[in-house]
Amino acid sequence: MDKNKNKPPGTWISAAETATITGLTLRTVLGRAASGKMKAKIPVDVPLSEDGKQNYVFLLEDLSPNAQLEYHKLHLPEEQKCSIDLATPRSNYGDEYVNDFLNTAALVREAENIRRTYKNESTKYLMHLAEDNGISLSTLYRLCGKPAAKELSHCYLDPVYMQKSLPQTMCLWSADFVYALYLDHHQQFSQNAIFRELQKLEGLSCIDCPYYPGRKDLQDGEPICTKCEGTMVIPNNRRTLNRLLSQIPPQMLCYCRKGARQWRSEYGHHVVREKPMLVNEHWQGDHHVFDLFVRVKLKRYRNDRLYEQEIAVRPVLTAWMDTATSCMVGWCISIIPNADTIAEAFCRAVAFTVGDEFHGLPKTILVDCGKNYKNTSMFRGFTNEN
Q: Using N-to-C axis directions, what is the helix angle for 15-22 and 26-35, rounded to 10°?
């Protein structure tokens, strides 16, 4: 019987699409196909490319798992996609969402620890955890059940999860000690310093180990060390520590040693906005305080008497800029910027002025989250139809 008779046919994709999902250039992909480094065949319908060179199609199943995943992401129907959106919250709320994201990650991790520790009796502890965080138990279950929750563990580390990566000359206790020192952002231990500190613990009895299997208070589901030799297992050289610490995810290492701000800069999700090509397609509005002072005379009446006072203030420019050309399309200068100055600058940008190249309503506008931009009178009548 032919084994390949019931085998489903493979998916053959073009060279351009192969280059897209693998991150290689088209020239590299065609070169590897010609040399036999990548499995490919010459298509019957289009054997040559537009420039007269040999054309190839590639078997998707022979590409790397990451490349196949990228292919399915591009071709998966929208109704079957499941993802977490971190760009939209950033554009709407700035960096405030990052703290919520990290808090949710800590909550999911704590729930996983409860399930692993208490197993059949975890429901009541999960209920207490949900009450302490001000959410219902069903909400906690939904958070833990999302596919994105599996990726939250990259921000945290537990030596139990790293047992498969533990060197033979180390135990859970020594690995826990090494992790704690290396991820301490207060002292910033080097690997040499950690090895010297670890050597000072040589001869420490396993009875004091929190992972000791003979502990009387040991509960079901708690991690147990399988390398009990009477004392803490310490490696003979620093290279063992190097292999252990190389397993730490880089995003978690950045968060612990450099802080949340650096983590947000390197691994945070940012919104990428493409610059428009057409004039009046996109406007941006904001305030700018001048780097100078002016004298302003204040007048106030009290008891039918006029009081005058002269003060020094920094004037403020309220302006609208066309994103495509970086030109100021409308502006006004004031002492106290508010919603009225924003509306006045916007009206000056929209109104037709002799000799002015910009006029009319833009397609979209971009403003910050200031309360002055929440002026209903300014946006009345400003719809997509305009």
A: 110
Q: Mind listing the pLDDT tens digit for each residue in 285-311? A: 888 899 889 888 888 888 888 888 888
Task: Please check whether residue 189 lies inside any domain of the structure.
Answer: yes
Look-up: residue for tokens 């007048």?
Answer: 299
Three-state DSSP at 14 gives strand
- The whole-model pTM stands at 0.40
* SS3 category, 212: coil
Q: Which of 104, 99, 148, 92 is nearest to 271 (CA)?
A: 92
Distance CA 100, CA 358 (A): 42
- In angstroms, the Cα distances linking 275 to 100, 143, 283, 289 are 30, 36, 11, 26
Kind and range of the H or E element at 331? strand 327-334
The verdict on 101 and 168 lying in the same domain is no
Last residue within a domain, chosen from 58, 80, 102: 80
CA separation for the pair 280, 352 (Å, rounded): 13
**Could you tell me the residue range of the domain that residue 352 belongs to?**
282-379
